Amino acid sequence: MKVRVLLPAIGVLSCCIYFQASPSRAETPLSFALTGRVSSAEEGPMEGVLISAKKAGSTITVTVVSDEQGRYRFPSPKLPPGQYALRIRAVGYDLVSPSSIEVGAGNTIADLRLRKTADPAAQLSNADWFRSLPGTEQQKASIKNCTHCHTLERVMRSHANADALVKVVERMSTYPQLAFPLMPQKLVAARVGGGEDPIEQRLAGWRRQAQYLSTVNLSSIDNWNYSFKTHPRPRGRATQGHLHRMRSARADPAAARRDRGFGGHGLVCKFRRADSR
Ligand code: HEC
After folding, report:
1. Which of 152, 246, 248, 252 makes an SS bond possible with 13, Cβ 3.0 to 4.6 Å?
2. What is the whole-number distance in angstroms between the Cα of residue 169 and the centre of ligand 1?
């Protein structure tokens, strides 16, 4: 299957995902610009680690995933020679070294060492938070929309108690969908369509949310007293392919965000899975 959404305008934040046919099936074998192994003291060779390379001065980031033996490889056409910053994503781990690499004309080799992170909360996705949070399905569903403009991590790091949270949640309702912490914007008029619930009803809803959130944020404890349940890293065939991401070239994050055109995530995706024709 191949899906492509074209950029509607120059400078639009965009992202293309390619899942390429495995080299054995490809017509011409791929050569690789950068390869190596990923490992940690805890796990040895690590599968499913996302490794991202971004060339100095470029807006493009290419990401590959390590296989069962911890091996990763960037296809040559995706990584022209130059200086690259390296980053990893493997929940619970940080990259120790190297954080940058000079990619030459041939095959550059770099083995990556990871270590357990000191701050696992900073690595949870919204889905990981929802999975980890205590509370009823109804309570969790009531805070689903809190992820529209920022991550749940921001919410869970709050020290506000229930009373203070009612005010915070009320303030959130004054922002339009495109507001975000780097650029808070206020609604200039009530949202059109459908009308709003009576204020008493909204207040009761905010109180319920605030009450629940005060039991899972840091208002009464120094550290979260529930364990983090993270989603597993990719495995097997899910590690084959690479991700190609292009950011808006605009320096102003608010302007870049307004560039976002589709899907709410500013992503343009192009897929080719290993099992597709
Ligand atoms: C429409 C966009 C939007 C939504 C939806 C939203 N927020 Fe926010 N949030 C913001 C913005 C903008 C800021 C930064 C400015 C501020 O603090 O008012 C922020 C900041 C915060 C902060 C940090 C500020 C503080 O005083 O502690 C918390 C906590 C927070 N939000 C909680 C929530 C909760 C809980 C929800 C869901 C009920 C939510 N947010 C939904 C836009 C939003």
Report:
1. 248
2. 7
Q: What is the pLDDT of residues 184-235, one digit of tens each?
A: 777 777 665 556 778 888 899 999 999 999 999 999 988 999 999 999 999 9
pLDDT number for residue 276: 40
Burial track 186-195 (b if 16+ CB lie within 10 A, e otherwise): eeeeeeeeee
Spacing, Cα 142 to ligand 1 middle (Å): 15
Rounded Cα gap, residues 171 and 165, in angstroms = 10
Nearest to 51 by CA among 73, 69, 68, 75: 73
* pTM: predicted TM-score of the whole model, two decimal places: 0.78
**What is the spatial distance between Cα 94 and Cα 8, in angstroms, rounded to a whole number?**
36
Gap from CA of 193 to ligand 1 centroid (Å):
23
Residue that has been written with the tokens 């039991």 in this structure: 215
User: What is residue 28's predicted lDDT score, i.e. its pLDDT?
Assistant: 60
CA proximity to 243, closest of 276, 275, 271: 271
Ligand 1 pocket test: pick from 144, 149, 151 the residue with the most ligand atoms within 8 Å of its Cβ: 149
153 near 129, Cβ under 8 Å? yes
**Relative to the CA of 209, which ligand 1 atom is closest?**
38
Q: Percent of the chain, pLDDT > 90? A: 57
Residues 114, 120, 125, 131: is their CA dihedral positive or negative? positive
Contacts of 147 (CB under 8 A, 6+ apart): 126
